[in-house]
Amino acid sequence: MTDPVYRGRVRLNRHTGSLELLSVTVSDSGQYTVTITKTLNDPEMRGKTTLDVIERISGVSLTGPAEPLIEDQSSANLTCEGIGSIITTEWMKDGQPLSPSSSIIFSADLRSVSISPVRRSGSGEYQCRLSNPVSSDNAAYTMTVNYGPENVSISGQNEVEVGSKVTLTCSAESKPPASFIWMLNGRETGETTASYSIEEIDSTHSGNYTCTAWNSVTSLNTTATGASTGGTPEATEVGIGAEGEASHATEVGTSKVTGAKSGASEATGAGTGAGGGASEATRTAAEGGREDQELEHGHKSAGMGSPEEYTISEATRAGPRTETGAGQDSGAGKSGTGTGAGLTSSIARGSRET
Length: 354
Known about the structure:
mainly beta, Immunoglobulin-like, four-stranded antiparallel sheet, four-stranded mixed sheet, rod-shaped, Ig-like_fold, immunoglobulin domain
Protein backbone atom coordinates (compact mmCIF):
# COMPACT_ATOMS: atom_id res chain seq x y z
CA MET A 1 0.00 0.00 0.00
CA THR A 2 1.38 3.38 -0.98
CA ASP A 3 1.60 6.16 1.58
CA PRO A 4 -0.60 9.07 0.52
CA VAL A 5 2.45 11.32 0.67
CA TYR A 6 3.98 9.43 -2.27
CA ARG A 7 0.81 8.80 -4.23
CA GLY A 8 1.30 9.77 -7.84
CA ARG A 9 5.03 10.44 -7.32
CA VAL A 10 6.41 6.90 -7.18
CA ARG A 11 7.51 4.64 -10.00
CA LEU A 12 8.62 1.12 -9.12
CA ASN A 13 10.31 -1.19 -11.60
CA ARG A 14 9.69 -4.72 -10.33
CA HIS A 15 12.12 -6.26 -12.79
CA THR A 16 15.07 -4.16 -11.71
CA GLY A 17 13.90 -3.22 -8.25
CA SER A 18 14.48 0.47 -8.87
CA LEU A 19 12.38 3.18 -7.25
CA GLU A 20 11.86 6.58 -8.79
CA LEU A 21 10.54 9.55 -6.79
CA LEU A 22 9.06 12.47 -8.69
CA SER A 23 8.95 16.12 -7.53
CA VAL A 24 11.02 15.47 -4.45
CA THR A 25 10.79 17.81 -1.45
CA VAL A 26 12.85 18.24 1.67
CA SER A 27 10.40 15.98 3.49
CA ASP A 28 11.48 13.13 1.21
CA SER A 29 14.86 13.15 2.92
CA GLY A 30 15.56 10.08 5.03
CA GLN A 31 16.56 6.44 4.95
CA TYR A 32 15.03 4.12 2.37
CA THR A 33 15.03 0.32 2.66
CA VAL A 34 14.49 -2.27 -0.05
CA THR A 35 13.57 -5.90 0.74
CA ILE A 36 14.01 -8.71 -1.77
CA THR A 37 12.51 -12.19 -1.43
CA LYS A 38 12.72 -14.93 -4.05
CA THR A 39 10.26 -17.36 -2.52
CA LEU A 40 8.46 -17.64 0.73
CA ASN A 41 11.03 -20.10 1.98
CA ASP A 42 14.05 -18.03 1.03
CA PRO A 43 15.52 -15.59 3.50
CA GLU A 44 14.90 -11.90 2.91
CA MET A 45 17.61 -9.70 1.52
CA ARG A 46 17.65 -6.06 2.58
CA GLY A 47 19.40 -2.99 1.33
CA LYS A 48 19.43 0.56 2.75
CA THR A 49 20.23 3.99 1.39
CA THR A 50 19.94 7.56 2.66
CA LEU A 51 18.43 10.31 0.58
CA ASP A 52 19.19 13.99 1.30
CA VAL A 53 17.02 16.45 -0.54
CA ILE A 54 18.65 19.90 -0.57
CA GLU A 55 16.54 22.96 -1.21
CA ARG A 56 18.08 25.85 -3.08
CA ILE A 57 18.87 28.88 -0.95
CA SER A 58 17.00 32.10 -1.65
CA GLY A 59 15.75 35.25 0.02
CA VAL A 60 18.84 35.85 2.14
CA SER A 61 18.65 38.98 4.31
CA LEU A 62 21.00 40.60 6.80
CA THR A 63 19.43 42.90 9.36
CA GLY A 64 20.97 45.18 11.96
CA PRO A 65 20.06 48.06 14.26
CA ALA A 66 17.75 50.67 12.81
CA GLU A 67 18.67 53.37 15.33
CA PRO A 68 21.91 55.38 15.09
CA LEU A 69 24.94 53.78 16.70
CA ILE A 70 27.19 55.84 18.98
CA GLU A 71 30.77 54.83 19.67
CA ASP A 72 31.37 53.14 23.04
CA GLN A 73 27.69 53.53 23.93
CA SER A 74 25.73 51.32 21.52
CA SER A 75 25.65 47.60 20.74
CA ALA A 76 24.77 45.99 17.41
CA ASN A 77 23.17 42.61 16.68
CA LEU A 78 23.33 41.38 13.08
CA THR A 79 21.09 38.50 11.99
CA CYS A 80 21.35 36.52 8.75
CA GLU A 81 18.28 34.67 7.48
CA GLY A 82 17.38 32.79 4.32
CA ILE A 83 15.13 30.15 2.76
CA GLY A 84 16.44 26.73 1.84
CA SER A 85 18.81 24.12 3.16
CA ILE A 86 21.43 26.15 5.00
CA ILE A 87 24.55 24.14 5.58
CA THR A 88 27.30 26.75 5.70
CA THR A 89 27.24 30.32 7.06
CA GLU A 90 30.09 32.75 6.42
CA TRP A 91 30.61 36.31 7.69
CA MET A 92 32.69 39.01 6.04
CA LYS A 93 33.47 42.67 6.73
CA ASP A 94 34.67 44.88 3.89
CA GLY A 95 35.55 41.77 1.90
CA GLN A 96 37.60 40.15 4.67
CA PRO A 97 36.58 37.26 6.98
CA LEU A 98 35.01 38.46 10.22
CA SER A 99 36.61 36.77 13.20
CA PRO A 100 35.34 36.53 16.79
CA SER A 101 36.95 38.71 19.48
CA SER A 102 36.19 40.10 22.91
CA SER A 103 33.68 42.49 21.35
CA ILE A 104 32.47 40.28 18.46
CA ILE A 105 30.52 37.19 19.50
CA PHE A 106 28.83 34.66 17.16
CA SER A 107 25.80 32.55 17.99
CA ALA A 108 26.17 28.76 18.08
CA ASP A 109 24.57 28.33 14.65
CA LEU A 110 26.51 31.33 13.25
CA ARG A 111 23.27 32.91 12.13
CA SER A 112 23.83 36.05 14.18
CA VAL A 113 26.69 38.15 15.54
CA SER A 114 26.76 40.58 18.45
CA ILE A 115 29.13 43.56 18.54
CA SER A 116 29.41 45.36 21.88
CA PRO A 117 30.38 48.09 22.23
CA VAL A 118 30.60 49.44 18.71
CA ARG A 119 33.64 51.49 17.72
CA ARG A 120 34.40 53.65 14.72
CA SER A 121 36.66 50.94 13.31
CA GLY A 122 33.56 48.76 13.12
CA SER A 123 31.98 50.97 10.49
CA GLY A 124 31.77 49.31 7.10
CA GLU A 125 29.91 46.72 5.02
CA TYR A 126 29.07 43.40 6.64
CA GLN A 127 28.11 40.37 4.54
CA CYS A 128 26.68 36.98 5.36
CA ARG A 129 26.76 34.12 2.88
CA LEU A 130 24.53 31.04 3.17
CA SER A 131 25.38 28.04 1.05
CA ASN A 132 24.85 24.32 0.41
CA PRO A 133 26.24 21.94 -2.22
CA VAL A 134 23.74 23.07 -4.85
CA SER A 135 23.34 26.82 -4.25
CA SER A 136 24.40 29.90 -2.29
CA ASP A 137 23.17 33.42 -1.65
CA ASN A 138 24.36 36.45 0.33
CA ALA A 139 23.19 39.75 1.78
CA ALA A 140 24.89 42.92 3.03
CA TYR A 141 24.39 45.48 5.77
CA THR A 142 26.26 48.77 6.11
CA MET A 143 27.01 49.81 9.67
CA THR A 144 27.83 53.40 10.55
CA VAL A 145 29.26 54.25 13.96
CA ASN A 146 28.86 57.89 14.96
CA TYR A 147 31.43 59.71 17.11
CA GLY A 148 32.79 63.09 18.06
CA PRO A 149 33.23 65.92 17.70
CA GLU A 150 36.77 65.75 19.02
CA ASN A 151 40.17 67.34 18.40
CA VAL A 152 38.55 70.67 17.58
CA SER A 153 41.02 73.34 16.47
CA ILE A 154 41.08 76.80 14.92
CA SER A 155 43.61 77.70 12.25
CA GLY A 156 44.33 80.71 10.05
CA GLN A 157 46.91 82.40 7.83
CA ASN A 158 50.45 82.97 9.05
CA GLU A 159 50.49 86.61 7.93
CA VAL A 160 47.70 89.10 7.43
CA GLU A 161 47.59 92.79 6.66
CA VAL A 162 45.16 95.12 8.37
CA GLY A 163 42.40 95.92 5.93
CA SER A 164 42.78 92.60 4.18
CA LYS A 165 40.64 89.48 4.36
CA VAL A 166 41.20 87.03 7.20
CA THR A 167 39.81 83.50 7.32
CA LEU A 168 39.66 81.36 10.44
CA THR A 169 38.95 77.67 9.97
CA CYS A 170 37.48 75.38 12.58
CA SER A 171 38.08 71.65 12.15
CA ALA A 172 36.86 68.63 14.09
CA GLU A 173 36.86 64.86 13.86
CA SER A 174 33.21 63.89 13.74
CA LYS A 175 30.78 61.40 12.20
CA PRO A 176 28.51 62.72 10.80
CA PRO A 177 30.38 65.94 9.96
CA ALA A 178 29.96 68.52 12.69
CA SER A 179 27.99 71.73 12.47
CA PHE A 180 29.76 74.88 13.61
CA ILE A 181 28.76 77.98 15.55
CA TRP A 182 31.08 80.98 15.67
CA MET A 183 30.74 83.50 18.50
CA LEU A 184 32.48 86.81 19.17
CA ASN A 185 32.55 87.99 22.77
CA GLY A 186 29.76 85.58 23.65
CA ARG A 187 27.48 86.64 20.80
CA GLU A 188 26.67 84.55 17.77
CA THR A 189 28.18 85.87 14.56
CA GLY A 190 25.67 84.08 12.35
CA GLU A 191 28.40 82.00 10.72
CA THR A 192 27.65 78.27 10.88
CA THR A 193 30.19 76.85 8.47
CA ALA A 194 33.70 75.59 9.18
CA SER A 195 35.27 78.82 7.87
CA TYR A 196 34.79 82.29 9.31
CA SER A 197 35.93 85.12 7.05
CA ILE A 198 36.54 88.78 7.86
CA GLU A 199 36.65 90.74 4.61
CA GLU A 200 38.54 93.75 6.02
CA ILE A 201 40.08 93.22 9.43
CA ASP A 202 40.16 96.21 11.78
CA SER A 203 39.85 97.09 15.46
CA THR A 204 36.11 96.37 15.54
CA HIS A 205 36.95 92.68 15.21
CA SER A 206 38.76 92.62 18.56
CA GLY A 207 37.55 90.11 21.13
CA ASN A 208 37.22 86.47 22.05
CA TYR A 209 36.29 84.15 19.21
CA THR A 210 34.70 80.80 19.97
CA CYS A 211 34.12 77.92 17.58
CA THR A 212 31.71 75.25 18.80
CA ALA A 213 31.51 71.97 16.87
CA TRP A 214 28.18 70.15 17.31
CA ASN A 215 27.24 66.57 16.39
CA SER A 216 23.49 66.20 15.95
CA VAL A 217 23.60 62.41 16.37
CA THR A 218 25.83 62.03 19.42
CA SER A 219 24.42 65.27 20.91
CA LEU A 220 27.95 66.20 21.89
CA ASN A 221 29.73 69.50 21.34
CA THR A 222 33.30 70.65 21.77
CA THR A 223 34.52 74.24 21.83
CA ALA A 224 37.79 75.87 20.80
CA THR A 225 38.35 79.43 21.98
CA GLY A 226 40.77 82.21 21.16
CA ALA A 227 40.96 85.99 20.68
CA SER A 228 41.08 87.96 17.45
CA THR A 229 41.39 91.58 16.42
CA GLY A 230 42.38 93.94 13.68
CA GLY A 231 44.97 96.70 13.93
CA THR A 232 46.40 99.78 12.22
CA PRO A 233 46.98 100.11 8.47
CA GLU A 234 50.37 98.47 8.87
CA ALA A 235 51.57 95.01 8.06
CA THR A 236 50.48 92.65 10.83
CA GLU A 237 51.88 89.19 11.38
CA VAL A 238 49.94 86.27 12.77
CA GLY A 239 52.15 83.89 14.73
CA ILE A 240 51.17 80.28 14.21
CA GLY A 241 53.86 77.66 14.74
CA ALA A 242 54.12 74.38 12.89
CA GLU A 243 52.23 72.66 15.71
CA GLY A 244 49.64 75.44 16.01
CA GLU A 245 51.43 77.19 18.88
CA ALA A 246 52.04 80.90 19.37
CA SER A 247 55.29 81.97 17.79
CA HIS A 248 55.74 85.72 18.29
CA ALA A 249 54.16 89.12 18.82
CA THR A 250 54.33 92.06 16.41
CA GLU A 251 54.37 95.78 17.22
CA VAL A 252 52.69 98.00 14.64
CA GLY A 253 52.28 101.76 14.21
CA THR A 254 54.81 104.46 14.98
CA SER A 255 54.97 103.80 18.70
CA LYS A 256 58.05 103.95 20.88
CA VAL A 257 58.71 102.36 24.26
CA THR A 258 59.87 104.67 27.06
CA GLY A 259 61.28 103.90 30.49
CA ALA A 260 64.42 102.11 31.55
CA LYS A 261 63.54 98.59 32.75
CA SER A 262 61.29 100.08 35.42
CA GLY A 263 57.82 98.94 34.34
CA ALA A 264 55.59 97.51 31.60
CA SER A 265 56.45 98.82 28.14
CA GLU A 266 54.10 101.40 26.71
CA ALA A 267 53.41 102.72 23.22
CA THR A 268 53.74 106.50 22.90
CA GLY A 269 54.25 109.18 20.31
CA ALA A 270 57.24 111.51 20.20
CA GLY A 271 57.78 113.27 23.57
CA THR A 272 57.88 117.06 24.08
CA GLY A 273 60.05 118.64 26.76
CA ALA A 274 59.06 121.26 29.31
CA GLY A 275 60.44 123.98 27.07
CA GLY A 276 58.50 122.79 24.01
CA GLY A 277 61.37 120.83 22.43
CA ALA A 278 61.97 117.08 22.20
CA SER A 279 62.64 115.48 25.57
CA GLU A 280 66.16 114.26 25.17
CA ALA A 281 66.41 113.19 28.81
CA THR A 282 63.47 110.84 28.51
CA ARG A 283 64.60 109.25 25.26
CA THR A 284 68.21 108.95 26.43
CA ALA A 285 67.20 107.26 29.67
CA ALA A 286 64.99 104.86 27.75
CA GLU A 287 67.59 103.74 25.24
CA GLY A 288 69.45 101.54 27.74
CA GLY A 289 66.42 99.41 28.57
CA ARG A 290 64.35 99.73 25.43
CA GLU A 291 65.70 96.72 23.59
CA ASP A 292 65.41 94.40 26.60
CA GLN A 293 61.95 95.72 27.46
CA GLU A 294 60.64 95.22 23.91
CA LEU A 295 62.03 91.69 23.92
CA GLU A 296 60.39 91.02 27.28
CA HIS A 297 57.07 92.42 26.00
CA GLY A 298 57.27 90.20 22.94
CA HIS A 299 57.84 87.07 25.05
CA LYS A 300 54.90 87.87 27.30
CA SER A 301 52.56 88.48 24.37
CA ALA A 302 53.56 85.22 22.76
CA GLY A 303 52.92 82.91 25.70
CA MET A 304 52.31 79.31 24.63
CA GLY A 305 48.71 78.08 24.55
CA SER A 306 46.79 75.02 23.49
CA PRO A 307 46.63 74.16 19.77
CA GLU A 308 42.90 74.95 19.76
CA GLU A 309 43.47 78.68 20.29
CA TYR A 310 43.84 81.36 17.66
CA THR A 311 44.84 84.72 19.12
CA ILE A 312 45.06 88.21 17.75
CA SER A 313 45.18 90.77 20.56
CA GLU A 314 45.12 94.56 20.38
CA ALA A 315 45.87 97.32 22.91
CA THR A 316 45.14 100.97 22.05
CA ARG A 317 45.98 104.01 24.11
CA ALA A 318 45.11 107.56 23.08
CA GLY A 319 45.06 110.96 24.71
CA PRO A 320 47.53 112.96 26.77
CA ARG A 321 49.89 111.11 29.04
CA THR A 322 52.97 112.12 31.03
CA GLU A 323 55.94 109.79 31.29
CA THR A 324 59.44 110.20 32.69
CA GLY A 325 62.52 108.12 32.17
CA ALA A 326 64.19 106.14 34.91
CA GLY A 327 67.06 108.63 34.94
CA GLN A 328 64.81 111.53 36.09
CA ASP A 329 66.07 114.09 38.69
CA SER A 330 64.73 117.37 39.99
CA GLY A 331 66.39 119.49 37.35
CA ALA A 332 64.01 120.94 34.77
CA GLY A 333 66.44 120.24 31.99
CA LYS A 334 66.73 116.54 32.91
CA SER A 335 63.07 115.60 32.86
CA GLY A 336 60.61 115.50 30.02
CA THR A 337 56.93 114.90 29.40
CA GLY A 338 55.48 113.12 26.41
CA THR A 339 51.98 113.16 24.93
CA GLY A 340 50.57 111.24 22.01
CA ALA A 341 48.65 108.10 20.91
CA GLY A 342 50.14 104.75 20.07
CA LEU A 343 48.81 101.34 18.94
CA THR A 344 50.39 98.03 19.76
CA SER A 345 48.94 94.96 18.11
CA SER A 346 50.14 91.43 18.73
CA ILE A 347 48.81 88.48 16.86
CA ALA A 348 49.55 84.99 18.05
CA ARG A 349 47.88 81.65 18.37
CA GLY A 350 47.43 80.48 21.95
CA SER A 351 48.80 83.76 23.44
CA ARG A 352 47.96 84.62 27.01
CA GLU A 353 47.44 88.09 28.41
CA THR A 354 50.18 89.24 30.83
